[in-house]
Amino acid sequence: KEIQRRVDSSFVETEAYITLNQLKQVSVVTSGEVNIPSQYQVSSMSNVLDVMFTSGGINKNGSLRNVIHISNGKEEIVDLYEILYGISKKDEEPVYVTNGSRLIVPPIGNTVAIVGNVVKPGIYEIKKNEFTIRDIFNLAGKSSFSHKFFVKRVTNNFKEEIDFNLDEDSKVKNGDIIFVIPQDISAQGTVSVTGSVKY
To answer: Which residues pair with 71 in a beta bridge?
Structure first.
C-alpha cells in the first residue's frame, strides 16, 4: 500500500506491481537419529517435516513422536505422527524453523507392533500410556476382513504370554505384538505353536 501510494503521488498514469524474487535462506542444524545429520541452508518457509526430508529422513532407531526443536532459546517437542497420520484433532499450524534452529531426533520410545490382516502392518511408537488397541488399529488401518486378534506380551518377570481376551479398548504396553486374524481363519479357531519354530 505504501509503494502504491508513493507511485500514485509521483507518477501519472502509472501502476506498480510487486513480485517476490527469492526467499530468504536460514541455517538449520539436524542431529541425532537422522540419516544425514548436518547443517543445512533451507527456505525461511520450511517447517520441521521439510527439514527432516532434507536431512535424509529419520532412521529406524529414531523417534517420530519426540523431535526436539530448539529455536531462539526455546525448546518444543514436535510429534510428526500428528502430520503423517493426522491423529491430532486440533487445527494447528506446522512448526516452522528459524535461522539457527536445531532439530534433535532422540532414540525411539515405547513401541507396539501389529501384524496380520491390517492395511499397514508394522511397528508404531506409542507416546502416552493410555494408548489402546483401537488407537493402533486406527494407525495401521484395520481391514474389513479383520475379525479377531490376540496380543503377545512380555510380563513383568520377562515371560511371554498370549492374551485372547482383550478388546479394542484395552491399553497396550511397550513391546506388545498384536496379531490380527482374518475372518475365515478365526471362524475355525486358532492353534498355538511354541518351541523351536521360526513363526
So the answer is: 74
pLDDT digit string (tens) for 172-183? 999 999 999 876
| Burial zone of 138 (CB within 10 Å; 0-12 exposed, 13-18 middle, 19+ buried) | middle
Residue 21 has which C-alpha cell?
524474487
Joined grid coordinates for residue 96: 516452522
- Cα–Cα distance, 112 to 124 (Å, whole number): 5
Report pLDDT digits (tens) over 72-92. Answer: 999 999 999 888 887 766 666
Q: Which of 162, 182, 176 is nearest to 133 (CA)?
A: 176
Residues 58 and 33 sit within 8 Å (Cβ to Cβ): yes
Share in percent of the chain as helix, strand, coil (round to 5): 15, 35, 50
**100 phi and psi angles, rounded to 5 deg:** 90, 5
Give the pairing of strands 177-182 and 111-116. Answer: parallel
Half-sphere exposure of 144 (CA within 13 A, CB side): 0
Assigned C-alpha cell, 38: 548436518
Q: Maximum CA pair distance of the chain?
A: 91
CA 188 from centre of chain: 37
Q: How many residues does the chain have?
A: 199
Query: In sequence order, which residues have a C-beta less than 8 Å from that of residue 198 and are 6 or more positions away?
Result: none
Instruction: State the DSSP code for 54.
Output: H
Give one DSSP letter per residue of 7-22, joined into a string.
Answer: HHHHSTT---------
Other CB atoms within a 10 A radius of the CB of residue 178 amount to 23
User: pTM for the whole thing?
Assistant: 0.74
